[in-house]
Amino acid sequence: MCDIAHAGPESSDLFPLLFLSTSTGFGGGRFYGGGEYFASEFLQAMARRKWRIELVCPPQSPMWRDESLIRAVRPYALDLSVKVRTPLRFLGVLLRWRAMTQRLSAPLLYANGFEAMKWVAAAGGPRVRVCHLHESTYEAYNSPRARSLARRMDLFFAISSEVRQRFIAGARVAEEKVRLVHNGVAVSDRVLKTEDEKRAVRSQFAIPPDAPLVFMAARTNVEKGHEVFLRAAYGIRDATNACFLIAGLQNQSGEEAALYRKITDLIRELDLHDRVKHTGHMADVRRLMRAADVVVVPSINEGFGRTAIEAMAEQTPVIVSRVSGLAEIVTDGVDGIQILPGDHMALGRALLSVLKNPGEGERLGLKGYATARTRFSLEAMTEKIESSLLDVMRRCKRPALR
Predict the structure, then answer these.
(1) pLDDT (tens digit, 9 = 90+) per residue, 145-195?
(2) CA-based Rg of the chain, rounded to a whole angstrom?
(3) With contact defined as beta carbons under 8 Å apart, do 364 and 342 qualify?
(4) Which domains does the chain have, with CATH numbers?
(5) 230 Cβ partners below 8 Å, 6+ apart?
(6) pLDDT per residue as tens digits for the range 211-268
């Protein structure tokens, strides 16, 4: 627990930070999810602030392919993602992990996600231990194991108020120990929407150049609301010539492949093949958001909802489900539209209200951009986290670094 002393923010080289990720990414291609996007952008921002970052993650993680991240940190490969089924194997993995943390000797250990917390809690030596909570499931937090691990940690960050409250209630942690820090994204000083880019995106996906474009970006997961999106498209197809584009659909792992078939079968069943296009993972998803007329985030459950902020940062109006972090991002009717989760009819009505009133869409897009800049920028997020890290270090005792 907390046993490290303050070295002072005025130091030319701030505290070394050992950041642990146990995630191997999503899909057969091992792509980033929200937690990995947070890690990459946050660590690069901290490196620019002169923090010395040591990153430990599985070698199959997409972080190893992220050249900009690898240039900013000192990467170390250790796969702590596997479920250890025998005491002997667990002991071997634990000893390897503890040897690595002792060799690297960073006084500040940072777990990216609840699953990484058990390893940070088990690390040897006098350390400050921090965990960033992305998961929204109360069941995971409400257990004797979670409560035991939480007692060994010094500070938590939660990505939404709902995640924070669920963790406090489940793990029985003092409120002051869990700080709310919404995720942030890069927000440009100026967004340039061009007709050439709009036409290029439509041409890329064989969409008529004059068709309004409704966009959804999500990994292949039942909680992301693909069926709601498709049923809303079916409900309004006779009232608009809009086309619908889904990015992020994968067809490689077991659960993923089954859901992919369900989604593509529903497109055929609803006879939407001429109006709905879909593609796999796209590295330049924000270009698609910028070219769209509206972005939809119809999640049934969502810890935060990074996609909504990315769309707002591109001045594109958003329609989101009124769940967890999404409800904290968008103010209904001010900088976006909220609908009840699972309500495809409400989503259809919201879409028509934007598509048939371009002026309203532009107003929501501009308001959303202002919200992204003032409340959800990468800089604002990093400053909050850095301030909290320095604060917890001040309250702790620290041995001399090697």
Answers:
(1) 899 999 999 999 999 999 999 999 999 999 999 999 999 999 999 999 999
(2) 22
(3) no
(4) 16-184+378-394 (3.40.50.2000), 195-375 (3.40.50.2000)
(5) 244, 263, 266, 267, 270, 272, 276
(6) 999 999 998 999 999 999 999 999 999 999 999 999 999 887 778 889 999 999 999 9
